[in-house]
Each structure stands twice: as C-alpha cells, then as structure tokens.
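Hi Q.,

Before the meeting this afternoon, I wanted you to have the coenzyme A prediction in hand. No need to reply - just skim if you have a minute. The sequence and ligand are here:
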Amino acid sequence: MTAERDESPAGQADEPTPAFTIQQVDVEDVRPLRHKHLRPDQPEDAVCYQSDAEETCCHFAARDAQGNVIGTGSLNREDRVAGQPPFGTPGMRIRGITVDDAWRGKGVGTAMIAHLLEYGRAQGIAEAWGNARTENLRFYVRNGFREVSGSFEIPTIGDHVVVALSLLPKGRKKRKKAKGKAAPAPEGEADAPASGGVSES
Ligand SMILES: CC(C)(COP(=O)(O)OP(=O)(O)OC[C@H]1O[C@@H](n2cnc3c(N)ncnc32)[C@H](O)[C@@H]1OP(=O)(O)O)[C@@H](O)C(=O)NCCC(=O)NCCS
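Predicted structure with the ligand bound:
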C-alpha cells in the first residue's frame, strides 16, 4: 500500500483546491482531531478506541502542505453483525473520520474514504461498514455506502445508522436464489447497533 499520495482533487478554475496528501500514520497522530471533532466534551482518552489496539487497525491522516493534520480515518478488520444482509465477510470497520473545519467541503473526507476503501480492496475485504452519525448519512451515501439499519442512539453522542458498502467485484455480489422463502432477519436486528455499537464510526 502506498504510504503517501497526493489526493487533491483537480481544483476549479476560479478556486483551486489546496494540496493535501493522505498517509498512514500512528494512532497518536489521529487522536487530537478525533477528540476535537468527535468527542470534544469528553476526556481525551474517550477517543482511544478498543479497536486501536488491534493488529489489523490502521490509521490515516490527511496533511496540508505544511504537514498539519487536517483529516483522519481509521479502519480495522471486523465483520458487521447488525443491520440488513448481505453481511460481507471479511469485513472492515471504518472509524474516526474527521476533517478540520477550514477544510470541510473541499473533498478531504471523500478522498479519505476512497483511500480506506482502496486499502480494503487490496486486503481482499468484502464489505466496508461503520456506525455513521445520522447527520453525516448524506456524506456516506455520496461515497457509495447504503444505510443498512434503522437509527439508534449512542449515549452522549447522538443518533447513528449503520452504513455498509460491498467491495466485491459486481459479479460476485449475486447469490444463488435460495429455494423457498428467504428467512427474515432476526427480530430487531435491522435496528440494532453493530457490535461495539456504543462507539461511533
Ligand atoms: C463528515 C465530514 C468527515 C465530511 O468531510 P468533508 O471533507 O467536509 O467532505 P467532502 O468535502 O468530501 O464532501 C462534502 C459532503 O460532506 C457532507 N458534509 C457533512 N458535514 C459537512 C460540513 N460541515 N461541511 C461540508 N460538507 C459536509 C455533505 O454531505 C457534503 O456533501 P454535499 O456537497 O452534497 O453537501 C466532515 O464534515 C467532518 O469532519 N464532520 C465532523 C466529524 C464527523 O462527524 N465525522 C463523521 C463521523 S460519522
């Protein structure tokens, strides 16, 4: 996986998009922005996710031309267990997506998601998913995810939905039609938060 890449989208003629790059970084590099934008009212260790300690966990930072971290994103190998099927496995959970205020609406978040998905594809991941804040659903849908659960509240953070995106090549998505009726999802499953559902994306 390329450690560093210029991710800046082509700028408009009248307003060029400033340059930024996305690199794999240590967890310490993503925590300040996570804290500032995801849990500003909580202690700093509230953004030390359990998954950060996992071997499969990777962190990425978008940096401006001066090297300042302006965006973050993390992922870990984890299957989705809630929401609507199909549950693609192996799964990859996306967490801690943030973009600093001055850089919002300039494509940094979209470039970060694309970077994480490319990483997942290279690892043979079948599905990327996350617990998205409801207010950010449009951002995830624009980036190819679909809403696969009803909304659920994560205490102190707010309403979330599970979003998921298949990374399988198109032909592999289709399943053989089962004989008879498809089994319904277990009761309540569609609305249930994902495993570790008390934590946001
Ligand atoms: C959600 C977030 C990561 C989007 O990053 P971004 O770099 O601004 O996104 P992009 O420029 O690539 O895409 C813009 C889209 O993001 C969405 N968006 C959400 N909040 C936005 C904001 N404050 N400013 C601009 N766009 C925002 C919009 O849907 C927008 O699409 P539109 O052009 O149709 O309006 C960023 O707003 C953010 O860090 N929010 C606070 C932290 C957070 O909630 N993280 C996600 C946890 S699930």
